[in-house]
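REQUEST ID: PR-0412
SUBMITTED BY: lab tech R.K.
PRIORITY: routine
TASK: structure prediction, single protein chain
INPUT:
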Amino acid sequence: YEFACPDAGTFWYHPHLRGNVQVELGLAGALIVEEPERLAVDRDVLWVLDDWRMRSDGQVAQDFGSMRDVMHDGRIGNTVTINGTLPDEFAVAAGERVRLRLLNVANARIFALRFEGHAPTVIAQDGMPCDPHAPPGGRIVLGPGMRADVILDATGKPGERHRVIDDFFARQVYEVVAIAYDPRKRARARVAGPVPRLAANPVAEPDPDTAERHRIVFSGGMMGMMGMMGGGARGMMGGMPGMGAGTPGVWAINGHSSTEADHSHAPLLTLARGRSHVLELVNDTAWWHPIHLHGHSFRIVSRNGTRESPPPLVDTSLLPPRERAEIAFVADNPGDWMFHCHVLEHQASGMMATIRVA
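STATUS: complete
OUTPUT:
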């Protein structure tokens, strides 16, 4: 492959055919595009966050595409790793400043990371620089496919240990890793200076006032599939055993269900190149969906009718159940682009479409 990298930031790559199997088996990786000028930090560290459904013999469970996973919140594993390993601790020196790049490559797990004893500052989301800010509620929430760059100042003392926990599921809080301070080492007496700001990437700013507007409804899954398919529950449940993760009809976008292997469907939208567009994303389901658009970054301008201030520049919008968001962008990248839920079981069973820019 040969391609230009106009934007600095934290990106990643993975297959889009049978992704719910291939990504689960580890076929994914980070792609970091460096800034022209190095950020003033002591270390630049990558955490690729993943989970795995492991059997008692240490092998990956082969129950890919089970209808329980497909129709609910996707394949959630029982073992969480960082960079493919099970580290007990992340070693730091008192006083150092770390740029921590967080990338969620899990099929379906949503991470909500809380750095106990520390105050991380978010400086980029989905590869795009943002105003440095504390994460809402002190938690860095990452749906599948989402990224965040944070500045982590090691303000503890030599010998201390602090947990990094994931508390997205309130009844299943667990420790991801411990921040462990070297008892014999100190980088400096205190962390130096204000948090640095990254230079903006060359992304065109949309004009919501002149934008074309489109409404997109996500439907299906357990609790919602009956209405989408127009069939009775008993008939559908009777057909479930023969269905797999690549079967359309479980999830839909604007009433249409397609799979990643189906290239015959017409585009969901054809957008005028160079023009601003606003998409109203409506989650008409009982489940969370990280909605990802290829080829573009967009501003999340509002959630449930409340304007975001400032509107984040991202490529994935995490939609809670029964909620909606408005996203705005300039359609300046010509071609056909995937538009899908990044819960890979949802994508593989219907919640994907194509947006054409022409």
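NOTES: The radius of gyration is 21 Å.
REVIEWED BY: pending
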